[in-house]
């Protein structure tokens, strides 16, 4: 009996290719493939095109390491931004969040990750030397560490703080405290503890 | 101040396009886009190509409704299969599972879904008339309903059983019972109840 696959080759390949997406196993990949082919051919075509366009059209900004269509991104090239402030974030999504607060007009450096020794992500993988070079341009006066307030984000911030301070740069960290608009009853105890320690005159 | 998006357009478009995948919200789409662009450009290119190839190269088999590169799929075109048996499954994945059991040599009909009134999926959406026409070819003698043993799969099976029987076709359902190799202690009570009801002479 000839070995016979009921699944046509383009379907098998599509399912296999969808597994390159983080968090997508075989079952999800199948479900995605069936959904696209059965109900959203247009979405599949758009995704195909968007992937090709992004791969071909995006690079890392030579100044902030964020994704950019040009050698220097729109934010870094904006003369209205304050070049003496450099805010270090883990991802472009974090940069978006800070931008949406309308509370910051300086520049950014995007790590594209955080220290995660257990996953083998160290200072080398994150190219900390590029950040150090960027921060030491003679114009930057303060580096604001805005990595996440998770264990790994904190570790990254501590590590970078020492590195940057040893180069004579002023280093600050986003304030910890009770989120705006929240009721104390629903804030976790660790956050309350920090807010107490870092309390300010009222 | 000009409205300024820190995110380049191809990245925004990619994130938006990834959301056409079922179960992928904005946060997952972002995570996927960053991962591909940062760590797996080759995977992104392959996925782009696989999507385009699948959209252009796949259609529904005119006999079994499964995905196929040709008008009639490999399984339906195989003269060694028994054309008097027609097994109705919900998805190509279910067909794969039955094939891998090596216990079936008949043909298939793939519903590409199941009755789900709450989601607005009725007999019309599933094109039950196509199945009826296929089953009434004069060659099929028995239709084996192999929809899932979930509430929706059972509903679909009951509905199809009546429809097919009213056309004079013999209809059967996969046997329910204790899974091969399982210890009774770990089998759920409903399955045990079914296995008792459908017990056979030993
Ligand atoms: Zn930049
Ligand atoms: Zn077929």
UniProtKB/TrEMBL annotation, chains A, B:
Classification via InterPro entries: DNA_Rcmb_RecR, Rcmb_RecR, Rcmb_RecR_Znf, TOPRIM_dom, TOPRIM_RecR
Record-level Gene Ontology MF annotations: DNA binding; zinc ion binding
Stored Pfam families: RecR_C, RecR_HhH, RecR_ZnF, Toprim_4
GO biological process terms on file: DNA recombination; DNA repair
Span of the signal peptide: none
PANTHER family noted in UniProt: RECOMBINATION PROTEIN RECR (PTHR30446)
NCBIfam families attached to this UniProt entry: recR
Family as reported in the entry's similarity comment: Belongs to the RecR family.
Full protein name: Recombination protein RecR
Species this chain originates from: Allopusillimonas soli
The gene coding this protein: recR
């Amino acid at each position: 009996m000839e070995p016979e696959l009921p699944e046509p080759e383009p379907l098998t390949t599509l399912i296999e290719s969808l597994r390159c997406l983080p968090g997508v196993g075989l079952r999800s990949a199948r479900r995605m493939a069936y959904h696209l082919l059965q109900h959203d051919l247009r979405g599949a075509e758009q995704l195909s095109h968007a992937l090709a366009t992004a791969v071909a059209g995006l690079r890392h900004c030579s100044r902030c390491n964020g994704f950019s269509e040009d050698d220097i991104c729109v934010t870094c090239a904006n003369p209205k931004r304050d070049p003496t402030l450099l805010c270090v974030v883990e991802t472009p999504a974090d940069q978006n969040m800070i931008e949406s607060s309308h509370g910051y007009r300086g520049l950014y450096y995007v790590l594209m990750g955080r220290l995660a020794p257990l996953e083998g992500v160290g200072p080398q993988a994150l190219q900390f030397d590029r950040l150090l070079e960027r921060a030491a341009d003679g114009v930057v006066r303060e580096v604001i560490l805005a990595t996440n307030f998770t264990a790994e984000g904190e570790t990254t911030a501590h590590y970078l703080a020492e590195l940057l301070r040893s180069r004579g740069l002023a280093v600050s960290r986003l304030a910890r405290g009770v989120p705006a608009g929240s009721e104390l009853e629903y804030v976790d105890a660790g956050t309350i503890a920090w807010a107490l320690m870092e309390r300010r005159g009222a």
